[in-house]
Write a structure and sequence with these properties.
This protein has 372 residues and is an alpha/beta fold. It has a seven-stranded mixed beta sheet with strand order 1-9-8-5-4-2-3, sandwiched between helices. Strands 7-6-12 form a three-stranded antiparallel beta sheet, with no helix packed on it. Helices cover 41% and strands 14% of the residues. The protein has two domains: 240 residues, Type I PLP-dependent aspartate aminotransferase-like (Major domain) (Aspartate Aminotransferase, domain 2, 3-Layer(aba) Sandwich); 121 residues, Aspartate Aminotransferase, domain 1 (Alpha-Beta Complex). It is built from 13 helices and 14 strands. The protein binds pyridoxal-5'-phosphate. Pyridoxal-5'-phosphate binds next to helix 4 and helix 5.
């Protein structure tokens, strides 16, 4: 059994994918161009935003959001320590300072109460240096965006949604990515909408910012070989866009399938009192990029499942404030107890659309056996 079977997905849409790739090869247009423009239009429509800009990766989407806001040395950016390393990497790469805020233990997303407490705790002069908040819609569930955006407005801080894991999720009916100032997506192959390589996207409703990001992704050039701002090379390539254009048509049905598999797990595991199945806020539509349970005996259960050839993954075993790359920030063990505790107790189970009923039953039976 595989944790994720990208081959099975490819086999199910092979003819269309091969044709789309062949069309790009025939066109001779490999970077940006028609396929990328089409994909940008489709994603803007899907997310209900005015603009979408195709980029090299989700990491670049976060980085270019910071660059578009001129965030740099001396500035501060708030985010959660319970996320993939890229979320905070980009802040440090801009020579700004990440400020971590602990998570809500039920949804694993940024806790708005702690967010405001942290902001208030910073002296008014230093507070002015807080330029952005990056809530992370971890596992495919939205952060509490009303609370976060209202705090952001109060303190005049921009909101960059790290929606890398959550394309297709909704918050109070709104597509995630469309709620903050920017929405950042990743098309890393394992994502709900995955390319056959790297890919990323920023969505926004701000025309000026969208135009700036379009320049930043091509070295700040506004004419061929003439630049007036420092940018990078972060263009989505046409082969990836062609693949993504095919796959986007299936995204909603794939998400429904993930939700159905999640419901099967929820039902089957609900009577095992040691297991916390994912908590979903009533107003959220979870895209189930991951189906993550929480248990005290996590390592034992994971070993047992592996002995029975069932793959599982821990996203993420070390919260960012305890990672050696962020040592210079001065955080210590105990600073973010909810993130630390969650990282010891979380375990993600296979939940992709092609997971067979037989394999899902085997996973459930084996978990039940462990607790029997
Ligand atoms: C929460 C989060 N942020 C950012 C990223 C970075 O995206 P990418 O791998 O496309 O650079 C990822 C992807 O793994 C992610 O899960």
């Amino acid at each position: 059994m595989k944790y994720l079977d990208l081959n099975a997905q490819y086999r199910s849409i092979k003819k269309e994918i091969n044709q789309a790739i062949q069309n790009v090869l025939n066109s001779g247009q490999f970077i940006l161009g028609k396929e990328v423009e089409k994909f940008e239009k489709e994603i803007a429509k899907y997310c209900d935003t005015k603009y979408a800009i195709g980029l090299n990766s989700g990491t670049d989407a976060l980085l270019l959001s910071l660059m578009a806001l001129d965030i740099g040395p001396g500035d501060k950016v708030i985010t959660t320590p319970f996320t993939f390393i890229a979320t905070a990497d980009v802040i440090v790469l801009r020579e700004a300072q990440p400020i971590f805020v602990d998570i809500d233990p039920k949804t694993y997303t940024l806790d708005p109460h702690k967010l405001e407490k942290t902001i208030k705790h910073i002296s008014p002069n230093r507070r002015k240096k807080i330029k952005a908040i990056i809530p992370v819609h971890i596992y495919g569930q939205s952060s509490d965006m009303d609370a976060i955006t209202s705090i952001a407005r109060k303190y005049k801080i921009k909101v960059i949604e790290d929606a890398a894991q959550a394309l297709g999720a909704r918050y109070k009916g709104k597509p995630i990515g469309s709620i903050g100032d920017f929405g950042c997506f990743s098309f890393f192959p394992s994502k709900n909408l995955g390319a056959y390589g790297d890919g990323g996207m920023i969505v926004t409703n701000n025309k000026k910012i969208a135009e700036k990001i379009k320049l930043l992704r091509i070295h700040g050039r506004y004419q061929k070989y003439v630049a007036n701002m420092l940018g990078i090379n972060s263009r989505l390539d046409a082969l990836q866009a062609a693949v993504l254009n095919v796959k986007l048509k299936y995204l909603n049905s794939w998400i429904r399938s993930r939700q159905q598999k999640a419901a099967v797990y929820n039902h089957a595991l609900k009577n095992i009192k040691q297991i916390h199945t994912p908590f979903v806020e009533k107003h959220n539509t979870h895209a189930y990029h991951q189906y993550t349970i929480r248990i005290k005996q996590r390592n034992k259960l994971q070993t047992y499942l592996h002995q029975h050839t069932i793959p599982t993954i821990i996203y993420y075993p070390v919260p960012l404030h305890l990672q050696s790359v962020f040592r210079d920030l001065g955080y210590r063990r105990g600073d973010f107890p909810e993130a630390e505790q969650a990282s010891k107790e979380i375990l993600s189970l296979p939940v992709y659309p092609e997971l067979s009923n037989k394999n899902q039953s085997k996973i459930i039976k084996t978990i039940k056996k462990f607790y029997a």
